[in-house]
């Protein structure tokens, strides 16, 4: 996609302990050279060993159903089989563990950009005008199949699939669609970007015939860049603010002319890697997620930094410019809007099982809910009986878990109690003096 990221250069481990065993139908990285310049075709530049051609029905990963089904044999009869048990598209515990493995991968391979791109390209085929799943495209794991991998916009993404294949093999109860989006969001976060409010449970397509047709992802250098961006991203249901915010992810990565037709073979910022040297980056620190993309495009002072037609359009189109100027000056605003736009993109076209999705990270709590221990004067947890007593007193004056009391209620109560304590202490001392006089 025009807002796609180039792959950070990285090399696959050659050690036998990290050998990737591909099925006979693995894709060669040279199988998808773009026929026209497209930002989405940027890829990692490491070389792959020769791989045999894919059969038309094969996936890079060994195929397994997106929904886990297990047969349970009745002990009373070896011939009796109960109906298949239906499970969620992904297992929450495995998602958490896989995220930690992805972090390790990122810290050793510097592959943040290509993993972000992987998630974006799987989701970015969504068409809001098509209701049926999976015809509508979107985040459904179809990118693992050869027909879609061979799209010019996806050149080099076979390298991303090879990187995460060991993780998929280790955590078989995670759908491909979820793994792609998990890797993408984690890459942004690990590069210093905002925490993405993600949910999981995306159901996978099961066959290459379910892949979307080529041409749904944008180009980097169309005749009318701003119009082209709107045409593509409005089709996904995204607006101008989200287009500009997502563009900011170009703070990561670099473009390689041998892959995309754009950029320089090498610059002072990329000649030493990390990973394999070369390519042209949008920013100086191209593995750090921040708002420098907007600042550098606005200034246009460094010839070693890449500015594509779709990048320049952000400061030329009046509507886009409002947001681009804002993000160049306000990194917090950029992070907030980017996190929301990334989460929205990652859900496009997806079918969730369970329907409400699976959340593996603690989300922000709306309002201040009642937590008894929070009002303890000591660090130790209160007993259950004390919690009940505090809750009863709290609710007696109008509070509830869903309707927290304003802070001044507690302040007034504390002041009133303090005044009463002082008053009784004063009166008690006077009485004690009087009695002692007899």
Automatic annotation (TrEMBL):
Function: Plays a key role in hydrogen peroxide removal.
Matching SUPFAM superfamilies: Heme-dependent peroxidases (SSF48113)
Lineage: Eukaryota, Viridiplantae, Streptophyta, Embryophyta, Tracheophyta
GO cellular component: chloroplast
EC number: 1.11.1.11
CDD domains noted in UniProt: ascorbate_peroxidase
Keyword terms of this UniProt record: Calcium, Chloroplast, Heme, Hydrogen peroxide, Iron, Membrane, Metal-binding, Oxidoreductase, Peroxidase, Plastid, Potassium, Transit peptide, Transmembrane, Transmembrane helix
First-level EC class: oxidoreductase
Residue ranges of the TM segments: 409-428
Chain residue ranges for the region called Disordered: 14-36, 63-93, 249-278
Main localization category: plastid
A GO molecular function held by the record: L-ascorbate peroxidase activity
Catalytically driven reaction(s): L-ascorbate + H2O2 = L-dehydroascorbate + 2 H2O
GO BP terms: cellular response to oxidative stress; hydrogen peroxide catabolic process
Protein name per its UniProtKB record: L-ascorbate peroxidase
Record's keyword annotation contains Heme: yes
Domain Plant heme peroxidase family profile, chain residue ranges per copy: 115-368
One protein family per Pfam: peroxidase
């Amino acid at each position: 996609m025009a807002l796609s990221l180039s792959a950070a250069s990285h090399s696959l481990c050659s050690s036998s302990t990290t050998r990737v065993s591909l099925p006979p139908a693995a894709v060669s990285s040279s199988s998808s050279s773009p026929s026209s310049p497209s930002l989405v075709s940027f890829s990692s530049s490491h070389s792959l060993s020769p791989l045999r051609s894919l059969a038309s029905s094969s996936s890079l990963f060994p195929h397994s159903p997106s929904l886990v089904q297990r047969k349970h044999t009745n002990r009373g009869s070896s011939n009796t089989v109960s109906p298949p048990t239906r499970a969620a598209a992904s297992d929450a515990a495995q998602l958490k563990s896989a995220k930690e493995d992805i972090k390790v991968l990122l810290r050793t391979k510097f592959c943040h950009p290509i993993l972000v791109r992987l998630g974006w390209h799987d989701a970015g085929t969504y068409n809001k005008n098509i209701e049926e799943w999976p015809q509508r495209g979107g985040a459904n794991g179809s990118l693992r199949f050869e027909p879609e991998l061979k799209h010019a916009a996806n050149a080099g993404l076979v390298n991303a699939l090879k990187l995460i294949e060991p993780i998929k093999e280790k955590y078989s109860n995670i759908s491909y669609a979820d793994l792609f989006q998990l890797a993408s969001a984690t890459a942004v976060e690990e590069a210093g970007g905002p925490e993405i409010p993600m949910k999981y449970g995306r159901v996978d397509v099961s066959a290459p015939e379910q892949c979307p047709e080529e041409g749904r992802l944008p180009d980097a250098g169309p005749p009318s860049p701003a119009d082209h961006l709107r045409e593509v991203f409005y089709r996904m249901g995204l607006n101008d603010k989200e287009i500009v915010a997502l563009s900011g992810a170009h703070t990561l990565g670099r473009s390689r002319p041998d892959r995309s037709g754009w950029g320089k073979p090498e610059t002072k910022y990329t000649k030493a890697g990390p990973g394999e040297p070369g390519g042209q980056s949008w920013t100086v620190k191209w593995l750090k997620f921040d708002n420098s993309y907007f600042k550098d495009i606005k200034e246009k002072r460094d010839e070693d930094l890449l500015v594509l037609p779709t990048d320049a359009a952000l400061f030329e189109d009046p509507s886009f410019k409002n947001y681009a100027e804002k993000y160049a000056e306000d990194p917090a605003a950029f992070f907030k809007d980017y996190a929301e736009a990334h989460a929205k993109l990652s859900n496009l076209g997806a079918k969730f099982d369970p329907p409400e999705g699976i959340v593996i990270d603690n989300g922000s709590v709306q309002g201040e809910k009642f937590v008894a221990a929070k009002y303890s004067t000591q660090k130790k947890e209160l007993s259950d009986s004390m919690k009940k007593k505090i809750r009863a007193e709290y609710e007696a004056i109008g509070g509830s878990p869903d309707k927290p009391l304003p802070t001044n209620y507690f302040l007034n109560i504390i002041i009133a109690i303090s005044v009463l304590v002082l008053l009784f202490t004063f009166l008690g001392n006077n009485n004690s003096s009087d009695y002692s006089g007899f």
